[in-house]
Amino acid sequence: MFGDLFEEDGVGLSSTTSSGVKGKESEPPPPRGKLKLCGIKNQGGTCYLNSLIQTLLFTPEFREELFSLGPDELGCLADKDKPETKVRVIPLELQRLFSHLLLVDEQTASTTELTDSFGWTNNEEMGQQDVQELNRILFSALESSLVGTSGSSLIHRLYHGTLVNQITCKQCGNVSERQEDFLDLTVSVSGVSGLEEALWNMFVEEEVFEGNNLYRCSGCQQLVRAAKSAKLRKLPPFLTISLLRFNFDFNKCERYKETGSYVFPLSFNLRPFCEKNNWPDSEYSYELFSVIIHKGGCYGGHYHVYIKDIDRLGHWEAPDEEKNGKVKSKSHRRQSKVEEGKSKHENSLENEDPLSVLISILAQEESKSVLVDQLGQKLMNKIGVPWSKKYKKQYGTINKFLQSHPETFLLVSNGTCVTLKVILPTKTSPPELINPPPESIELETVTGCDDPDEYHWFDLNDSTVSAITVRDIEKQFQGKESAYMLFYRKTALKRPPEAIGNPGYKVPLHLLEMVQRENERLQQRRTEFDSSSNNIEVQLHLAPHYHWLNGALHPTSLAEDGIIPVNFDRRKTVGDLRLAIYQMQELWEGDMALTLAKNVPAGLHLYETLTGVGNGSHLFVWNGREVNSVEVQTGVEWEPVLLTVWRPSLEELGCVDGSGHADSNGSGLVHSMKGFAGGATLGTLLEALGPQDALLCQEQSRLGASGGGASGWRVFPPQDMQRTLRELSLKDGDALLLVQPEELDSSIFSVSGDVVTVTTPSDCRWLQVEFCAQRGMKQDVEEAEQGKKRSKVSASGNMLLEEVKKKALEDLCLLEELNDVECCLRQMDRSGKLLPPVHEHLSVRDAGIRLMTSLYLCGGPVPKATQLFLYFSIGFAPSVGQELEIIVEESLTVKECLKEMLQIANLEGESWHLRRVDWCEEDASLKEARVFHGDTLVLVEGRLPPKGFLKVSVRMYTDDMNSLPGNKDGAAPQSSQEASAEWPGTHRFIGHVEISEEASLDDFKTQVMTLPALLDACVPSPAFLRAWLLEGKKLGRILRGNQTMLRKLKVGNGAEVCVQRLMKEEDLGLKHLLLRIQMGVPGEKMYYPPEEFLWDSGQDSSPKGLYAALASSYGLAPDNLLVAKHLPDKHNWMPISNWTPQVSKRKKKRKAESLQSAPFYLKDGDVIGVKNLLLDNNKDFSTLEDEIGQQRLKNEANQCSRGHSVSSHDTVSKKLSSTKNRKPEKALSISVGEFR
């Protein structure tokens, strides 16, 4: 229903609009499509209203009656706000909406003004309503609105019918009747096959009062046997039938939708359902012209409507040309079948065809129906031979024959009575024959006709209109998308010739004038929008104002004299554009070519074609060959690439004669930007840049990126000289190094294989060290802030950081002042946080410190090579400045590290644990926040973890097997009560684990091992722990795959996990099932203690596979075992059979059933009982505890049933309260003024 909730006024054009068009609000609605019919916009939830409005529109008699009411009777909409006038707004708005739908050249119309006249607010327009209810309320509102006008009886004349309920006394024949009026017939869907059977049950079947249900007759004045029936007395011109698709289940206390098959004919005859009279057959004949369809469930959905175009206002086109051809050929074949059927019917009695004989028998009956038990006797009376001798061998029993011809016979009263399906007779049919032959029935009710001279069907789905065939109606017999309301019209209602194909037929003049003004306004808007949307602005670049440089075109001056903006209609041809430019450039001489141009980093580049010209495109005007006597290459393959070319500087090479290039930044290299065609080879580039023997290198790492001020360049091999720049994947901004062999002797170059390393000159090799005063030092912090001490220390990549610190202390004159104070070098991040101290035994390059950056001289010890510097804080959300620092040996365990941190933080207790925190920005990825040194640890106690972390409750499983009787030396075995899905044993809470959802199961087990409850337990490794996911405090499933992430194992925040200590390592596969197997004690209703059994269901998950695995374990043959699964909730056992049924070779072999699917659903922890048939012939798996449990369940069920009879109302209310909460349904209403 809400499909078009955000529907706009029109569909936007794909073309680029000019600056004069401001968005979609200025775009006019598009004209009607090729089907020539108009849809209706959905206001959010008004699809039910749209479907009913379209049905009324395509009811020509209703439409024309409404149009016949003029302003003198209804008033004028312009006066509706005047208090002294009474304007009948609802019919006026319907008139205006109908005229819009018929004549305005627009794809969709709006019902906003109509719903405003109803008095509806946004609640009604957005809410879910029933179209059957709307049909009655709208008709009532129209009747009230038309009181006192010539149309006051409009609804009554077109839709009103009457039926009569009669009770006939079987003793005296007295008839008591009661007449009822109806606007629509509501028929049942549940339990019937179609519309005709439902009508038969309503108007042909009799309800007999007898036995204890007698009727008091007013004539006899006593209780007598009587029959109750109903008949149609007056038939309306238009019959509306509402299908009871929605029902209520009193057992489940919920509504549901009937989605079963429900057949309805395209045309049918109502004579069998009416009182006997002398009306002609045309008064009983109806044809279908509208089907309102509901898609969805009983609490929501969507409506649309299939409509038969009576006046042929639309232009029907077959959905598929090929399919259309097939339908036409089939219609010719069926036409021939109709003729054959007629001839067969005429000679049927002579040939004694059983179908014809039965049709003749039923047609001669006055009620047109016969009891099935009596049909055989009537057939023998007619042909002289019983059915069993003449037809049974070929056709089977008479019942089977009737069921095999549902297109002809209708079985009613639970199959005890048979009647003919009533079909409208054709003109060529014999007058005495009501039902045509079966072939004609199929043609009339199913196939229809797709001839252009016949009527066609359309699907009007809110704004969408599509053509359909009659066969599409069959698809609405059943399913979630099925027919909901049926509209029939009398076949005697004929349309005048002047109405066919004329949408303006009988439309009042004032409405025609309104429509004409609206169409003129729309046409003007479309013309203006079409002109503005197709008017594009292009930039013309004139060749005389450009020159060729660096592989691209550049303007000769900074002034924009060579760029001319031109507005042009995109629908015109290129020749028209060239002519317009000729007229603008009167001084142009020679040929003129227009080429699409684009600005690239190297300049302006030309392409070969004019495809893709749009608003803002650039066109280059030239002769097509050269620009200022320079030949210009065009096309994508010659698109220039702007490269950065580096060379040794003049100072670095020691040139004093003015050759070379000046070094502007002292880096030893100079660069220039050069543009080359993408299709040029690397050899051509080298020839343009320098001598052929020079080395051409591509940048591998940027200057100083790897620490130590060095950058790497890869030398192009000789074979690359024949490849183009595009093939080498060179792009704009890439850097190349051009160096001659003799220049490699310079100090800044070093060659290793095909890699040239460029080392930064000495004046660029420095590190700035800044003294960062801290509390505890001799110099006060405030004095340090007043004059910060900085020193630029000369350094290289190979220099040790210890030497850097020593030089900095000397330069800053801090040797004496910091003689007894430990100090270290630290870096600072962008947020101002000091990073961990650097390892001073490393070089600048090995420590990853870039030259020309800053280091900070801070107080504190220097970590050794075997030590780690860590941050830690107390609390859940640490901030910079509140973190504590610690240096520990990397060989310490987590527990020992935790103790040292607690000492520094002056904390006591053992309920603390460590975890890492994500201290980076939330938008940063884990890859960007990856840190190997200086991790932050946080001490957390009883607080929820941040996003991305899980807080898992951990419980410890304690096996009580040793305490069970019979566990040692063959003592008394345990009963089944202890071998339920809850394993024998208990689990107690031992703490919480906070861990990332990206952590593996092995990481989780490792962290569990650090909990205080497991510190004294002997758990050698995480593989000795088994992790169960608890489901309702019971052991659910085992977490498998030690390297699988917790997120993939579906362990969520707040989950409960129970760990179990094992005696050996375990790594279960995905297909392994852990079962508890218990062997039955021979001759007793008891079992030996259960044992764990690991079954690989991946090899064979069928019962045969389980039997084979158990037989191998016990050393027995599979045939000597009997296996069952225990159901602890029901205190029952489900046998697992090893029997394989014999399958015929002709039949397809069935796939072996899996014990992990229905009905066994075998899972981890299930208890499997095993009987050894060699020792125990008792095949009953039940124990005494099972029998006690079953008796207890029966007692509880009896108490519930007794309580249900006493407090059924409370039970229903509880069920209703347990269902899904829904918004209260509001009754639909339409506000109408007083016109009496």
UniProtKB/TrEMBL annotation:
What biological-process GO terms show up in the record? protein deubiquitination
User: Which SUPFAM superfamilies does the record cross-reference, listed alphabetically?
Assistant: Cysteine proteinases
Biased composition regions of type Basic and acidic residues, renumbered to the chain? 336-348
The record ties this protein, via Pfam families, to: UBL_USP40, UCH
Which top-level group of life is the source organism from? Eukaryota
Task: Locate the compositionally biased regions of type Polar residues.
Answer: 1196-1219
GO MF terms here are: cysteine-type deubiquitinase activity
**Domain USP, which positions?**
38-491
Where does the record place Acidic residues bias? 1-10
Biased segments, Low complexity type: 11-21
Q: Which GO terms describe its cellular component?
A: cytosol; nucleus
Which region is the signal sequence?
A: none
Instruction: Return the annotated region ranges for Disordered.
Output: 1-33, 321-349, 1196-1236
Mind telling me which PANTHER family this protein's record contains? UBIQUITIN CARBOXYL-TERMINAL HYDROLASE, UBIQUITIN CARBOXYL-TERMINAL HYDROLASE 40
The protein depicted here goes by the name: USP domain-containing protein
